[in-house]
């Protein structure tokens, strides 16, 4: 009888998830980064090489340069949890075919079976970590931030749209990386934070951070929010706050100790591992990244004027000052509605202003934006499309153009359908969004001008505009969004179809990154304003007052 | 809805572009090269490639038209000597040509949905069931063939038949026959249907047939069919025999390289077992030249113990299996669903008893069944079973291990959707649709109260079907993993 028991909404999520998994499966057929391109290959070979290193060398040698471990060839530079994961995957690989992980001999190993094996390892962790995390998030936080004026998108729709986001599918299952693990863990941490399970949240976030150090982009909001939850509210004793804080602190320290244990017996080991995580010598950005420095570099050659060390300090200063407003706001006026926004703001500030940024790092911003999707579907959709667009040069290089086009069309169509479905309930109109636009056009065109002079028309128009300011504003916004997205489509088209002029071989990637950077900066301002506009949450105080009275 | 579904399905098809493709990819490339670079007189004589042109001329014209677009992508794929040519551009063009000609299929589905009384089922359920048909995705977009456009034409014809526009139905069906002659499987049903409904359009045979009108209608039909056939075959009038011998290669043997899951597969198996048994007993000796039936080659072989089967035998068997359905169609024939049902039965009997049947031919039964499934609850049950088993029987076509995940996901998605939507279409019969394992103890042995009431209810059926489907899953698991050890 299970068909009857489950509601339509649950079925929607089941189908959405299955489709998302199918799309992931289909994307695995496409090429990975560095397929058949010796001597360095790409990220795929990096992950395979880590399996080789971790399964063949003793644990303390993993991060050390040596005769058996050439760090110049894809040396391990992720935190220990990734290394453990690679160790487990490597052991499995050894079982299947020992050639996959033979020390030295397996360098650049490529075969159809191996590709299949690697693809399955990503697919499994994606299905186990990332997909459940999104489902849990949207169902757990259903009532979160539901404004009375604007109904947020329903959990099934946001879940499906989140799962269909092409960026992570393309990078993890096309380009080849394991982002879904750290991002999934971070989402679980977010769920726990919002549900006030501080200990579980700390454990999850520590795990995420120890899987990929890039999670540092999200660390400030977590830190600030957990800290502010320990600050005693009026009517609470100071000791309870201290106990809360020490609980969290002990959890964090213990999780770090557990994960880093093998490297703690020797100070040298520890320092080596730590240094590998932060390769400061690699310069302010690689390739073309859609951030502030890359755009500034067009007009003002940074690398010629500053040494690497100076640049690092400038970046540090810039990042801190940009993260400052949202973090301080989160700490002083904490609210669960703000938390996801603070995650966006912090990661976006890091992406735009910090040192050594990759274009793939935009995924760290995209995840909190996906989480914020129900509140502002249009803005978030716009951002997510542009985030994929900002990675176009990379995807183009990897031969993932067809996959990108297919997944983007799939995503946009699903978005359009969901929004239409959503507005149908929201506006109570049969045609949904179409009806909304039609009435808008009707209002705009329905100006009597038979006997009117030019001035009357102007007056009437003005009156109409004033009366329908809100609708008009929305219309203008949608028009602007559409133009901007069309612009990005046009630029990608240029990149795909035309050869760049000889004098500027990097012209199109540069245009793309500048175009996206400008947008990202706009989004940065917008999300900051959104965050600061939300007032402080007084739940705790009100509860205390109710109890005392 | 239909537009959205088409758009989303197209995206999945685009994602499948780099997937494995069978020799049919080269077959179609070769045909394109033949039609493009050789004069029409040579099309059916050309044999430099082993994949000679064996579709009717209308399909050859279709390839000819395609070849002009192909020349914009890569001219080298149009050279006959370039056997097994496979550049990136060729791949892209060939895959895209299938994806784009699939729009005909989408249009056919649209017409079909329009010709049934409008309701939620024709707005949502039927378009999804038709357009996302996972068998077509597997055969066309992975294995590589142009079935989309062919089934599109079939759907157009069926929709006209349902709207009682018999002339158009006949026209499109003859077009279809001239594109791929395998649709002859359905011809008997069409013949009886058109004869009864259009030519002898009386209340009953016995009283007052309007003779003049009957003759006029018969002439119209004849003119249309002959017109279409002469358009395709007239240019080949001086070597029709060659064309026909290419189209009907009876030398290819009873079964296709991969056995279709039909009667002859059982027949062959029994033959093998008997042969082994007799070998053990020492009654017969092993022939040195006995060809392997499962070797994957297209060839003739003779049975060892059981009498060998000739084309005539299969023809007679098939015809006799079709006969009841056709008689029923002649006498019943009130509702469009009667016609659809006889189409399904014709397709199934040809599939089960025909000569050299491909496993892909099961789609010919599944697609009309999916239209029927939203009309009648019993057809829905049949559709669920044949849909799942039929699509599963296509699995051997996609043998590379990289496709295992995708084909399993495709069939799971399609079957769950079919199950879910049909149980919503027939809510009172919902407990009769069930997936194996998921609802133990229901349906099989316990009777349920039925609000609907007036249907015949067979509680044992769903239990058997369930255990049957469970075994399906187990046998696939054995195929993939167990067989290696």
TrEMBL record, chain A:
Keywords: Endoplasmic reticulum, Glycosyltransferase, Membrane, Transferase, Transmembrane, Transmembrane helix
Cellular component GO terms, alphabetical: endoplasmic reticulum membrane
Pfam family, one: Alg6_Alg8
Molecular function, one GO term: dolichyl pyrophosphate Man9GlcNAc2 alpha-1,3-glucosyltransferase activity
Pathway(s) of this molecule: Protein modification; protein glycosylation
Membrane topology recorded in Swiss-Prot or TrEMBL: Multi-pass membrane protein
Transmembrane segments: 12-32, 117-140, 152-170, 248-265, 339-357, 402-419, 475-498, 510-529
Subcellular location, record wording: Endoplasmic reticulum membrane
EC number: 2.4.1.-
Domain of life: Eukaryota
Family: Belongs to the ALG6/ALG8 glucosyltransferase family.
Protein name: Alpha-1,3-glucosyltransferase
Species for this entry: Zophobas morio
Lineage: Eukaryota, Metazoa, Ecdysozoa, Arthropoda, Hexapoda
TrEMBL record, chain B:
Cellular-component GO terms for this entry: endoplasmic reticulum membrane
Keywords: Endoplasmic reticulum, Glycosyltransferase, Membrane, Signal, Transferase, Transmembrane, Transmembrane helix
Segments passing through the bilayer: 149-175, 182-198, 218-237, 305-327, 361-380, 392-414
Pathway: Protein modification; protein glycosylation
Biological process annotations from GO: protein N-linked glycosylation
Protein location: Endoplasmic reticulum membrane
MF annotations from Gene Ontology: dolichyl pyrophosphate Glc1Man9GlcNAc2 alpha-1,3-glucosyltransferase activity
Cleaved signal peptide residues: 1-22
EC code: 2.4.1.-
EC class of the enzyme, as a word: transferase
Protein topology in the membrane: Multi-pass membrane protein
Family, similarity comment: Belongs to the ALG6/ALG8 glucosyltransferase family.
Protein name in UniProt: Alpha-1,3-glucosyltransferase
Annotated organism of origin: Zophobas morio
